[in-house]
Amino acid sequence: MVTTELRRDPITGRSVLIDLTAQPHPHDFVLEPVRLDDAPAECPFCEGREADAGPELLAWREGGPANTPGWSVRVVANRRPMLRIEGGQDRRVEGVFESRDGLGAHEVVIETPMHDQAVHRLDADRLWRVLWAWRTRLQDLKRDARFAAAVVFKNHGRAAGARLDHSHSQIAAYPIVPAALDEKVRGAGEHYGRTGRCVFCDLTAQELTDGRRTVSDTLSIIAIAPFASRVPFEAWLLPRDHAPRFEEVSDATLEAMAVILKDVMARVDWALERPAYNLVLHTAPFSGDADAGFHWHLEIIPRVTRWSGLEWGSGVPRNPVSPEEAARALRAVAIG
Amino acid sequence: MVTTELRRDPITGRSVLIDLTAQPHPHDFVLEPVRLDDAPAECPFCEGREADAGPELLAWREGGPANTPGWSVRVVANRRPMLRIEGGQDRRVEGVFESRDGLGAHEVVIETPMHDQAVHRLDADRLWRVLWAWRTRLQDLKRDARFAAAVVFKNHGRAAGARLDHSHSQIAAYPIVPAALDEKVRGAGEHYGRTGRCVFCDLTAQELTDGRRTVSDTLSIIAIAPFASRVPFEAWLLPRDHAPRFEEVSDATLEAMAVILKDVMARVDWALERPAYNLVLHTAPFSGDADAGFHWHLEIIPRVTRWSGLEWGSGVPRNPVSPEEAARALRAVAIG
Fold first, then answer.
1. What residues of chain A lie within 8 A of the CB of B27, using their CB?
2. Is A217 touching B (CB cutoff 8 A)?
3. A87 or B333, higher pLDDT
4. Alpha carbon of A231 to those of A144, A206, A280, B231: distances in Å?
5. Is the pLDDT of residue B31 over 80?
6. Residue B180 backbone dihedrals phi, psi, to 5 degrees
7. In the predicted model, is pLDDT for residue B176 greater than 70?
8. Is the full-model pTM beyond 0.90?
9. What domains are defined for chain A?
10. Cβ distance of A174 and B318 shorter than 8 Å
11. ipTM
12. What pLDDT score was predicted for residue B29?
């Protein structure tokens, strides 16, 4: 007997169908190899090939001039940007249709100089520098008044949309608040309007008390399997205290973040046998209007299943692994 | 130089990034084979194995008793339902979390008695019977006052989430209006409130005049590549005249629908070299509250690309093929 539960995401109000009795089915899972098998000799992100990746916007380097070897993290403009700083701001309206230039920024954070080093295998102090690069670039992008918000994301593996094996993340700044962030901002705003409290703070407090969905924990950051997880082994990392913006976090919080991110990614990597995954960082829109109710957080989204017409047609994902079960499995992984 | 355009979907308000200068990139595309290579000898949907699929809720048959061979279309309950009619209606609230039973219905429409016959290769009169089964089952499900809405969908091929090769579609009835339908209902409602007109009617009239995105056409139904297409070669089929509900269409409209659906699917099949795809049918929620502004339609969603962290993080899909270009390519396919 199949038993499913419709669960409502407390931030967005969106529903998911958690299948509490699912039996793993081979057709549910992605069959593609994770790696793309790029030739390292042609990889534009490898140390020594700085000119191929383009001039650096930011780098963590031990010394030496810009755009030469000696860096551990390096940020460059995406060579095939989805959003460009040269765009105009005008809306074009034609009957019911509206469009505008793809104005914005699209940057690449090269997370390591070495070709074959996954970010979840970096030492915590190396991972810290990746988070530092995210923070620094967000601080800079925020100064451009044409941008409404930015999202940081990462594609690891073919099924997650990666086009290069060399470990990197991406930062995209938009002239609008993009939909996935906007629905969180709206939902959090409604909760704040109704209760005077941040919904992420309420959620974090409840998860710490409950414990069934906690995966890992530090003094400042908690990792949970979200109540309305959209995919198996989805995990969220949230600061315990109210903090709307990632670009304003302290060095100490970045340190805690590096430690817990490495820990949780190692657990996911073990439990799902080296899956493809996406990372998504959501920080408050640049305007500041949403700061009272918004709370930055990082999503880990393993890409081991695929969406069918059920998801496209209803917008209600079916998740064959409950977050309680995923959290239990992730807690049980022996680390270190 | 990459040029992208942010386009707003006139129904939902959601944005997409259309890449007007994309060069096809092999890593963009799904590599999986479309077929699952099920053994026909074990297929529960094949003629002669009616007991394996379960008792029929509906069948089009030339004669003979129920649950025996002789049918051309057959509807059964899904053996692993995502939603079940036995569920309760109560909401469970625990702090910020809300859940409820997966109450609803989940049915399978077996579109042909033959194992190796894709729905887009059926004759129009056979395809008519599939649409007739959708209509008839929706009429019945609507009578259950516990259901708020239903969605019909189809998964063709592995990348589209299919679990069986034997051609079938699915009908899911929900105790809520599911998100993907709800955001259309809300958007259409706003347009209706502002203008007194149906946004789908406005859109259809504009596309018929413009012509750049029309793919195919009958007296009663039009096929377009939507202005804010989310994936390459997305296509929508819409009735020309205002019609909120698929379950109320006439036999003649079903006929026109079968003809144009077969035509457009043949074009997509040729242009993308037999892609995996989903079909989604959206009809107004059962309550009738949205009927003035809603308009039934069918989406064809080829699954030849994959979503990355860009889509998960922003909710703004990148589409590397403009709908104008897709429509031109689809119109150019020589059919018949």
1. 36, 158, 162-163
2. no
3. B333
4. 35, 22, 14, 21
5. no
6. -65, -30
7. yes
8. yes
9. 41-81+98-332 (3.30.428.10)
10. no
11. 0.95
12. 74
